[in-house]
Amino acid sequence: MITVSVKPLFTAIFTLSLFLAIVLLSPSSPFSSVPSNKQAGKSDIWGVKRLVEWRPCRWWIHGPRIALPAESNGYIRVDCYGGLNQMRRDFCDGVGIARLLNATLVLPKFEAAAYWNESSGFADVFDVDYFIQQMDGYIKVVKELPPEVALKEAFHVDCSKRKGQFDYIESVLPSLLKYQYISITPAMSQRRDRYPLNAKAALCQACYGALRLTRTLEQKAAELLEAIPKPFLSLHLRFEPDMVAYSQCEYPGLSPASKEAIEAARGDRKPWTGELARTWRKRGKCPLTPNETAFIFQALSIPTNTNIYLAAGDGLMEIEGLKSIYTNVVTKSALLSGEDFLNMHGNTKAALDYYVSINSDFYVATFFGNMDKMVAAMRAYKGLHNTLFLSRRAYAELSSKGLDGKELMQALWLAHKEDFAMGRGSALPDCFCDFKS
């Protein structure tokens, strides 16, 4: 008969249990790095299987290219207004229009408003030689007009109501043939689906295949990208006084400084009240606050220790609502220094945010503006699909039903899970086609 001493066995079991407890509870343990906001058994939003992916359409990338006519109908310059990404959108539309009308493209004129505190032109932001090289075969591009044309002032053609192929052929082409040098500002809402494939291909190539930052600006953007702790999420958060004022939304509980800034930006735009205000908010018209953004992040099980690059301009309000929960937030002004950065303003700073965002591990936007559409499409072009637009409508509708806490979080998870799985908002259909996984 074999006898076993109970005391040594008990001592061994106790020692082993103590060791496991120390390992599991140690700050350096891999188990302790699981974020507290992640619900048991549920991964974050990026773990959701994508059912639809957006990729460049074959007719643009691999389709036969229609040869350019031997003779051009004249010269077109695109006049671009607003912020960098609005001007980029207008310019891309202008390239498509110029190809549609068999015109030679003149480098665009950037008409930045005083609000953007920027006077840089196209060549200050984008690599002109690279653009011309990449557009070879799609459209003719010139840096300078021939002497006999350069002496003329471009005849401006109003394109505010021109949206489709036949609009331009019937209303703009005659002016191009008559004056030989015209300037246009494309309408805000283009019907690109009505363009022939050669014009659509030129537009797509210009926007996603030919626009590269200047060497100097790209070096500065690469420096910024290198300085951001990895992996990281780029967040385009929109909660500036002018945007809130423009939305005509009311936000209770804001700081006195935020209220004062919004009121100063309102002008004649008064906020909606009563039932109109509730309806407006439920339609998703009100920008998400930083605090609401943090709440949705937690609902999506995005760890609170995530490295976040804040792709935003100056003037963000209530930012502590995000930083108090997500503490690893960095900005370009905190990571870059030097006189070259201090001299940057609207367009060039926006170019830095664009570059970082299209190269980030994850991209999240609280809006669906010009930058967001361009970044999402460029990420799809590069094969980066961890892109998500937070749903202002889902947040407003679910909150209006009285949901809060864990119940609201679960409902927001389901709403965003479906959006991410279906690739909603991750690219625009003009140049991209959906492929089932």
UniProtKB/TrEMBL annotation:
Pathway: Glycan metabolism. One of its GO terms (cellular component) is membrane. It is a single-pass type II membrane protein. It is found in: Membrane. Keywords: Carbohydrate metabolism, Fucose metabolism, Glycoprotein, Glycosyltransferase, Membrane, Signal, Signal-anchor, Transferase, Transmembrane, Transmembrane helix. One of its GO terms (molecular function) is glycosyltransferase activity. Residues 1-25 form the signal peptide. One of its GO terms (biological process) is fucose metabolic process. Belongs to the glycosyltransferase GT106 family. PANTHER family: O-FUCOSYLTRANSFERASE 13 (PTHR31741:SF2), OS02G0726500 PROTEIN-RELATED (PTHR31741). This is O-fucosyltransferase family protein. It comes from Populus euphratica. The lineage of its organism: Eukaryota, Viridiplantae, Streptophyta, Embryophyta, Tracheophyta.
